[in-house]
Write a structure and sequence with these properties.
Elements lengths: L10 H15 L5 H6 L3 H30 L6 H22 L22 H14 L12 H15 L4 H19 L21 H21 L1 H14 L8 H13 L6 H7 L3 H13 L1 H9 L7 E2 L2 H9 L7 H4 L4 E2 H6 L5 H16 L4
Antiparallel strand pairs: 1-2
Helix pairs in contact: 3-4, 3-5, 4-5, 6-7, 6-8, 6-10, 7-12, 7-17, 8-9, 8-10, 12-13, 12-17
């Protein structure tokens, strides 16, 4: 999202200790000699990583206890998110100076240089805590078909803009990707890291209001093409009443799409030529959510992938959304091309792959 106790020694360190002891037992090398084999830079990096893991474990335990006691602080997810980032950054710093610490692939799809697969249980716990802390409010209005709703709205908007059938399908697929990017596919959620962004598309009040105005302007064209969808829309509007429309799944998605993404649906054919990978296409539309101005400039430039961002504020926004955020080398970057930015969005890969699989399932089902 603009993404979510184990009090044991880190497994990588434990394995390292076992290795030293085993070799020592054979009389080949003593623990002291093994430690001396590390340079000071490597030893410091290992100490920093171990400390970062312990800190992450401590904050996980603290949040679990606070949830049990119903005494969560304001923005309870922020410190947890930052602690996870520090752990991943410390891991990258360690593997930069000690490449032998790069381990096996992990189920999260994180590059192994940034993450020790033995720490997967910590991330499982992290996700569980975020699910609790970001649970929808009691008055939220959910949908029995949340994924289909997103696809239906995205395709209806694209049709109303006069786009061809192939582009309409791609608009639906991209729309579902945005839902997963913002909420991991969970409808009506709150936000444990922000008091501003809420609901199924994680929009702020101004964004939601802007989307509602744009929907009102295009609604007659949608009605002419899809009366049934407008019938659903009218029912959801009536159901929402005076409720914050970000907590009605249908209206939240509708207004979120209209706020920022729908205006670029007409550029999908050109985007697909430059970015044939569906996941890359979704990443670009997520950048419209995160850093809209430079992304639109990149699209206008005629050299999307080579367009370079160097504004410190934009680089800060990218880091706040998990790009170039982990490790000293990444954080020292002062600029990046859009190809480099897309490649750095690896934490989004798993979400977009799930969205793509779900979209294919929805399209395969008989209509009606």
């Amino acid at each position: 999202m603009r993404i979510r106790s184990h009090c044991v020694a880190p497994a990588a360190l434990a394995l390292g200790l076992c290795f030293v002891v085993a070799i020592s037992a054979f009389g080949l090398i003593s623990p002291a000699v093994a430690q001396a084999a590390l340079t000071k830079q490597q030893s410091d990096a290992l100490d920093s990583y171990n400390a970062a893991v312990k800190n992450f474990e401590a904050i996980l335990a603290q949040r679990r206890a606070q949830i049990a006691a119903k005494q969560l602080p304001n923005l309870p997810g922020q410190a947890l998110y930052l602690a996870r980032n520090v752990m991943m950054g410390a891991r990258k710093d360690l593997t930069d100076v000690l490449p032998s610490k790069i381990g096996r692939p992990n189920k999260l799809g994180i590059p192994p240089a940034y993450f020790d697969a033995d720490s997967e249980p910590l991330i499982d716990e992290y996700k569980k805590l975020f699910e609790i802390m970001q649970a929808p409010p009691a008055n939220a209005q959910g949908s029995a078909t949340p994924f289909k709703d997103v696809v239906d709205l995205g395709t209806a908007i694209a049709r109303a803009k006069g786009l061809d059938a192939a582009t309409v399908d791609l608009a639906g697929r991209i729309s579902l990707g945005m839902f997963f990017a913002e909420t991991n596919g969970n409808q009506n959620i709150g936000n444990a890291r922000s008091n501003t962004y809420k609901g199924s598309f994680q929009t702020g009040p101004a964004e939601d209001s802007n989307g509602r105005k744009k929907w009102a302007a295009i609604k007659p064209q949608v009605a002419a093409l899809d009366p049934a969808l407008i019938g659903r829309d009218d029912k959801e509007e009536a159901r929402a009443g005076n409720l914050d429309h970000r907590y009605n799944h249908w209206t939240a998605v509708r207004d979120g799409l209209m706020n920022a993404h729908a205006e670029l649906f007409g550029q999908i054919p050109a985007i697909v030529k430059t970015l044939p990978d569906p996941v890359d296409q979704m990443k670009l539309f997520e950048l419209i959510q995160i850093v809209p101005a430079p992304t639109k400039s990149a699209l206008r430039s005629g050299n999307l992938l080579g367009y370079r961002v160097s504004d410190p504020t934009i680089m800060k926004y990218l880091r706040n959304n998990s790009m170039f955020a982990y490790g000293q080398a990444d954080r020292a970057r002062t600029s990046a091309t859009y190809r480099e930015i897309l490649d750095a969005m690896w934490l989004f890969n798993e979400k977009f792959e799930r969205a793509l699989a779900l979209f294919n399932e929805i399209k395969a089902k008989p209509k009606g």
